[in-house]
């Protein structure tokens, strides 16, 4: 079962990228393969840029999504909402209108933040947006990783036991949900 993934932080040492790396490593134990679609080369969306030609980075990411059974969004939370880089990527991938790889494709969410609520507000904001794409959104398990600076070691390895267990539970449950579809 192939899952494409978008990471909403482009930061060196990102906790969300570290969480996605942990998910990629554990996925095969749960019958999943997670492949990241790189959004780091996406320009800021404008219909002028789009009219001049869809950027190669966008076309490449779109192909990854199209080959997958599900899109996994690994999202930071910025100002109690979704982070701009990931919203920008979604705006690109929503095009052309009516022919987006996001329409109807099952979607799953996880995220890490240094705060107490572990991206729950950003995840809820994404859920509201996904209504537009008519997507089934995975809800059997949640992964909201709080106080991220304590959860990873200096190499970006997930070390906090409760989150290692949460990630396993999440991936097992995601595999079951996708398998039953
Ligand atoms: C512009 C900005 C806004 C932020 N807003 C929130 C927030 O609303 N809630 C929260 O829990 N953390 C917030 N943070 C802290 C992030 O959780 C933290 O920077 C985290 O490390 C970002 O994810 P990353 O490590 O993957 O880059 C914010 C950080 C930035 C830079």
General description of the model:
With 181 residues, the protein is an alpha/beta fold. Helices cover 40% and strands 13% of the residues. It has helices at residues 15-26, 47-52, 56-66, 84-93, 120-130, 148-151, 161-179; strands spanning 2-7, 33-36, 70-74, 107-112, 144-145. The chain has a five-stranded parallel β-sheet with strand order 2-1-3-4-5, with helices on both faces. Strand 3 (70-74), helix 4 (84-93) and strand 4 form a beta-alpha-beta unit. Flavin mononucleotide is lined by residues 9, 11, 14-16, 76-80, 113-115, 117, 148.
Major sheet, described briefly? Answer: 5 strands, parallel
CATH architecture: 3-Layer(aba) Sandwich
Can you identify the CATH class? Answer: Alpha Beta
Q: What quaternary form is this?
A: single chain
- The best one-word shape is globular
Q: Averaged pLDDT, please?
A: 97
Query: H/E element string?
Result: EHEHHEHEHEHH
Q: Could you name the ranges where pLDDT drops below 50 across 5 or more consecutive residues?
A: none
- First and last CA, distance: 11 Å
Q: What amount of the residues lies in strands?
A: 5-15%
Per DSSP, the total helix count is: 7
Spell out which ligands are present.
flavin mononucleotide
Helical residue percent band = 40-55%
Radius of gyration, in angstroms, nearest whole number? 16 Å
> How are the strands ordered across the major sheet?
2-1-3-4-5
Number of strands: 5
Number of domains: 1
CATH third-tier fold name: Rossmann fold
Q: Which class of secondary structure composition applies to the elements?
A: alpha/beta
Q: What is the CATH H-level superfamily?
A: Flavodoxin domain
